[in-house]
Amino acid sequence: MASSYGSIFEGIRIADFSWVIAAPLATQYLAVHGAEVIRIESSHRLDTLRTNLPMINGVGPDHNPYYASYNMNKLGIRLNLRHPRAVGLATMLIANCDAVVENFTPGTLERLGLGYSKLRHVRPDLVMLSMALGGQTGPESSYKGFGTVIQGSAGITHLTGWPDRDPAGTGVAYTDFFAGPVAASVLIAALMLRKQTGLGQHIDLSQQEASLYALDAALLQQTVNGVQEMRNGNRHPAAAPHGVYACRGDDRWIAIAVFTDAQWRGFLEAADRPAWGFRPQFETFVARKAHEDELDRLVGQWTAAFDAHAAMRLLQQHGVPAGVVQDARDLTQDPQLQFRNHFLDLAHPMMGDFPFDSLPYRMNGVQPVPAHAAPLLGQDNAEIFKGLLGLSSAEYEDLEKAGVIE
Amino acid sequence: MTAFPSHLPLHALRVLDLTAEMGSIGTRLLAGLGAEVIRIEPPGGHADRRRPPFAGNEPGVERSLVWFQFSAGKLGITLNLDQEDGRAIFRRLVAVADVLVESQPVGRLAELGLDYGNLCAIRPDLIQLSLSPFGQAGPYSRFAGSDLIEVAMGGLMYLCGDPDRPPVRVTAEQAYAQAGIQGTVAALVAVWQHAVTGEGALIDLSAEEAMTWTLANNRLTYSGTGAITKRAGGGRADLSGGNRIIYPCADGYVGFLRRSDGHIALHHWLDDEHVETGMIVADLQGKPLYGEGAASPELRARLEQVLQSFFATHKKRDLVREGQRRNLIIAEVASPGDLVESDHLRQRGFFERIDVPQFGGSVMAPGAPFVSRAMPWKSGRPPGLGEHNLFVYETLLGLERDEVITLRAIGAI
Questions:
Q1: Of chain B's two ends, which shows fewer C-beta atoms within 10 Å, N or C?
Q2: A362 and A396 share a domain?
Q3: Which CATH code of 3.30.1540.10, 1.10.472.10, 2.30.29.170, 3.40.50.720 fits the domain covering B245-340?
């Protein structure tokens, strides 16, 4: 058994036509655990993440930690899918694969001659996962988007922010990070079904629909009660105080969540039993809720004197759920993340050593460490085209000259 | 087209769901993929049953819509792990289960003599997924957690909100959800491994660590350059190049992503709508919006003003339809009402009608997050309190009715 659970999906080969975040994130789980995931890329349609800033140790498509963070342990080839001679080559590759993952605008692969209806005759047990933003069907299936904007159509933006303000949205392409793991599970399940029955399938996963599961009960509240949930800042219907409070320093904050009497007593102890804390308007939850603005102000006055991490430790010592609103630097210094060896220095041929995120779980105490960093553009052309597909050197060079293989 | 026979890939998988506050969306995903998920509740009912909103605004034990969303498609049993007899029953359940998913307070199961080592004595190939705020060990492992805390500690909250207000959480409970959905991936990886090697696994997942995967390139940017990204409001994010994304419009908001290669189409749209951009288009001619040789900040600011007033006077669906027709990246900021009325979701059949005897009727509920003829989503309703006690205890475990009654009488179930 591999020391880091890196060969669990040995024998599974995936043709990964996807790009940007959600779909590559999904296939990365399998790649880290030993599936051979082949990113199929092209200079005609460079993955957006390969052009993002910052670039490390140089400029170019192989200097992007952003791309690298969702493509660890994968292989990479360069194939110009729009070249008329590419479809044969792609089909040959897929015939050697167990699964295809793609997130093109619906219809794109069909137009390229690589639709499921054709591929299932090439490989009847093929699992094809299509992960378009709005799915393969429906009036909005042709819509273009990125997660930064799709979080709006997935209902997340509207419900995030302050009730007296325009919605804030999340500041990241959050739907990618929700649809990605959901898709990974669906893909593994489909491969399991194939193992059990020999059957392939075409899965239409809409990133929007998968992300609707991030909304908890908001949709049911609408359908069952006809009530529209509203964004509510950092408040919680069953907790007070429950919010984010300023600490000493510039833009330093602590999150505090008091749900129980014991936690409230713990807060009062941590705060050195302030007189205000024992007034009737803070004695019960109901009373605290009724005076929540004042409560938040008073809690904030207390936290303002503290360094955020010191306040967290003090509150936690008294059994109060509290946590620093950590920025990127805090994360790299976080002793718990260090304990878990969270930041993995992977050696990247162009970027050098760079700290990537570890998957968030340990199996039997062992961390799933990728064997290698993300592929350079076209890094595995020879291995795949000549090695796996058996092209001769002459054929390979001919296709390169013709611009089919880049 | 020939119909594929329908199968549920996890139909032979039995999952004990001992989640507390976090992770139950993950076990719902397992149920949807076909697993038999048995939600274990204390005899008085899981705490989720107390959470509003309630169907019809009636706070009954069967009426929580949060409980519904988390428990649809699962079986439900009651079991008291604080009692010796309850723990004995739990051990018997483990003997016939494949996977245990739990998010109990760190250390609780060990105190009860139900830690993984003990359970392996009963079921050597057990797969146990343990979800916790920070992990099962380490300096923060015994911290009191809550979703707000893990969203804050994991770095996402710092990036969200308006600059003149505190950072704000993302809606609902994203740390709990991320622990759940990433945990489900890990569980399925272990199930796959088990099919190959026969081995079980103890999976220790940290919600804080799971949240570090939601930061896009913000932590990477710090590691690469030392720059710390801050919340910027207006939905601004890494892929928006610092530009505002969220725009008020006549009946709500839209999200619009400016891309250098899209601004010609944008200007043509504004022109076609007779918006005063003449000067701007002329000045911008040939220049990209940002990057090398870009238009001046003053010009960009004027364009921004024009855009804001254009959006403000149009309805969101019209803007999205027309903008998309012109290949621009624009989407509605959908409210729950918008989603429920969405033609797109309706035509895709996303919402399903589910019979809910507990409500005395049926509801339209979120349905499958994917569509596949060969692998249909397993829908369902949430279980009533103790609804499957007899099925699980008598049929699965082989207890006699008298035994079940005794366990009930002493409060073990």
A1: N
A2: yes
A3: 3.30.1540.10
State pLDDT tens for residues B290-307. 566 667 778 778 888 888
Q: Are B171 and A174 in contact (CB under 8 A)?
A: no
Structure tokens at B375: 């692998």
Structural domain includes residue A384: yes
Active-site option among A16, A62, A98, A176: A176
ipTM surpassing 0.85? yes
Strands A99-102 and A13-16 turn out to be parallel
State the Cα–Cα distance between residues A195 and A111, nearest whole angstrom: 30
Mean pLDDT of chain A: 96
In chain B, the residue whose alpha carbon lies closest to the alpha carbon of A244 is B166
Q: Could you tell me if residue A283 is inside a domain?
A: yes
What pLDDT sits at residue B234? Answer: 85
Whether the CB-CB separation of B175 and B214 falls below 8 Å is answered with: no
Name the pTM for this structure: 0.97
Residue that is last in its domain, among A326, A357, A373:
A326
- What is the distance, to the nearest Å, from the Cα of residue A242 to the centroid of all Cα atoms in its chain? 27
| Domain boundaries, position A304 | 242-246+252-326
What confidence tier does B272 reach under pLDDT thresholds 50, 70, 90? confident
At the top level of CATH, which class does the domain B14-213+349-409 belong to? alpha beta
| Cross-chain residue pair B343–A139, CB shorter than 8 Å | yes
Q: What is the pLDDT of residues B336-374, one digit of tens each?
A: 999 999 999 999 999 999 999 999 999 999 999 999 999
Same domain membership, residue A351 and residue A283: no
CA distance B79 to chain A (A): 24
Give strand pairing partners of A257: A242
Residue A337 to residues A334, A350, B398, Cα–Cα distance (Å)? 5, 26, 45
Taking an 8 Å cut-off on Cβ atoms, the answer to whether B152 and A144 are in contact is no
pLDDT digits (tens, 9 = 90+) for A379-393: 999 999 999 999 999
Cβ–Cβ below 8 Å for A364 and B239: no
A176 catalytic residue (yes or no): yes
Residues of B in contact with A289 (CB under 8 A): none
- Residues from chain A that touch B151, judged by Cβ atoms under 8 A, are 255
Contact B68 A161 (CB under 8 A): no
Interface size A-B, in CB pairs within 8 Å, comes to 520
pLDDT digits (tens, 9 = 90+) for A123-166: 999 999 999 999 999 999 999 888 888 999 999 999 999 999 99
Burial class (CB in 10 A: 0-12, 13-18, 19+), B59: middle
Residues of chain B with CATH 3.40.50.10540: 14-213+349-409
Q: What is the CATH number of the domain that holds A273?
A: 3.30.1540.10
- Show the DSSP H helices in A98-239 as ranges: 108-111, 116-122, 147-153, 174-197, 207-211, 218-225
pLDDT at B286: 59
If asked whether residues A144 and A290 sit together in one domain, one would say no
Sort out which chain B residues have CB atoms less than 8 A from A321's CB and list them: 143-146, 148-149
Q: Give the one of B153, B199, B329 whose C-beta lies nearest to A149's C-beta.
A: B329
Between B195, B213, B330, which is nearest A357 by CB? B213
The pLDDT, as a whole number, for residue B5 is 45
Statement: residue B4 has pLDDT above 50: no
